[in-house]
Design brief:
The chain is α/β, with parallel strands linked by helices and 395 residues long. The chain folds into 2 domains: 2-128 and 372-389, Rossmann fold (3-Layer(aba) Sandwich); 131-369, 3-Layer(aba) Sandwich (Rossmann fold). Helices cover 45% and strands 14% of the residues. The chain contains 16 helices and 12 strands. The strands form 2 sheets. It has a 6-stranded parallel β-sheet with strand order 2-1-3-4-5-6, sandwiched between helices. It has a 6-stranded parallel β-sheet with strand order 9-8-7-10-11-12, with helices on both faces. Helix 6 packs across helix 11 (278-284) and helix 7 crosses helix 10. The protein is globular and about 60 Å long.
């Protein structure tokens, strides 16, 4: 099998590339930038020329690109996209219905939302990590001095989100948003923002905030407001609240990009390289925290798998799909709210043997079941089985 892999410098592209090379006759990297995910004549031409030159069996990308899908459609070329974020707005493009598509989503609720609209080109598939690579990263004495700590959080703070840039909203509309975001922060495992947005609030928001609601996207105004504006603001508020609470009880290390938050009693370790520094931070921290962005409704985020795949001990917020794949207090620890989280941090800081055993079990499970080889087996089985049923191939 010959495959073209599109790369837009995703942090895990090397792991995917390596896994694909183990099973493909040839993997050709295509890394031209797009001016626009929908239309880019120069990109379209370059992709067309590459396809005609290489005659691949499959085109593959991390994330879904409508432009790539439309080109693949013209060549009857299977287009596999494995989406590592949720929601990924491009998956709501009407091009997702193109019959060449095989779109793999890790969030089951996101998958159901699209499937229930009659879209037959989407599939549910948990994410994967490269535990062989992450687990083999060695810690030098200098690394231990730099990364060893009691408690750490690696997370985007979303301080520069679109909602924070809105210049004006009527006080009652802004107050309404503040109230429902605060309420959502206090409820775990249930997402009610869509139900909370009344027609009046939606229409008022549209009066003061202009955005491009393209007709070729399968999103209504409620979903656009939540996914584009409120989701990042909710993540910002929730993480600030979490950090301020924990820093009053523990020595907390925060790994993130530059931000404008003023935290007290927090050591800031900066932004870490995914391939080199990140696994060292996970190994060096006695307790790694995972706080999942609420827009990931049920799925298991890559960050959590990377922590476990590095051999790190993790305490995570509840996600519905966690219980389908992992055993709480055996493979990882799940917290219910800030009070529960505080108690569990204290407990596991004082019980090193239990902590290390849970980390060991979690690493072994992720290494065995959540690797790229198993996921690619599933992906290509679906792709070529579907093609045979459609009569497109004979082998």
């Amino acid at each position: 099998m010959k495959l073209i892999l599109y790369s837009d410098h995703e942090h895990n592209i090397n792991d995917l590339h390596y896994a694909l090379k183990q099973r493909c006759e040839a993997v050709i990297i295509f890394n031209r930038s797009m001016a626009d995910y929908e239309t880019d004549p120069a990109f379209d031409l370059a992709m067309k020329q590459l396809i005609e030159k290489e005659t691949p069996d499959v085109f593959f990308s991390i994330y879904y690109y409508p432009l790539i899908s439309n080109v693949c459609l013209r060549y009857h070329l299977p287009y596999v996209s494995w989406v590592f974020d949720s929601p990924s707005l491009s998956t709501y493009s009407k091009t997702v219905c193109n019959p060449c598509n095989y779109v793999f989503l890790f969030d089951r609720q996101n998958y159901y939302e699209l499937k229930n609209q009659g879209i037959q080109t989407v599939y549910h598939l948990p994410l994967s990590t490269n535990a062989d690579r992450l687990g083999s990263v060695k810690m030098s004495p200098e690394d231990r001095t730099k990364y060893e700590c009691d408690l750490s959080l690696m997370a985007n703070m979303y301080t520069d989100n679109l909602y924070s840039k809105i210049k004006y909203l009527p006080p009652y509309v802004k107050g309404y948003f503040s109230a429902i975001l605060e309420a959502q922060m206090n409820i775990y495992g249930y997402h009610f923002l869509r139900d909370a947005l009344t027609d009046t609030i939606v229409n008022e928001f549209k009066t003061y905030v202009k955005y491009n609601m393209q007709e070729n996207y399968l999103m209504d105004d409620r979903q656009m407001i939540i996914d584009v504006f409120l989701a990042d603001q909710l993540a910002f508020l929730e993480r600030v609240k979490l950090i301020n609470h924990l820093s009053g009880h523990f020595h907390l290390t925060l790994y993130t990009k530059k931000h404008n938050c003023a935290f007290e009693n927090v050591y800031e370790g900066g932004f870490l390289d995914y391939n080199t520094d990140m696994p060292k931070a996970f190994k060096g921290s006695k307790i790694n925290l995972n706080t999942t962005k609420r827009s990931i409704q049920t799925g298991i985020p890559l960050r959590l798998l990377d922590i476990m795949g590095s051999g790190g001990f993790v305490i995570s917020n509840y996600q519905e799909e966690l219980l389908d794949h992992f055993e709480p207090d055996k493979d990882l620890v799940i917290y219910e709210d800030l009070k529960d989280l505080t108690e569990k941090i204290r407990y596991y800081l004082a019980h090193e043997d239990e902590r290390k055993e849970i980390a060991r079990r979690g690493y072994e499970k992720v290494k065995k079941y959540y690797n790229y080889d198993i996921a690619l087996d599933t992906i290509f089985h679906i792709v070529f089985d579907t093609k045979k049923k459609k009569g497109r191939i004979t082998t």
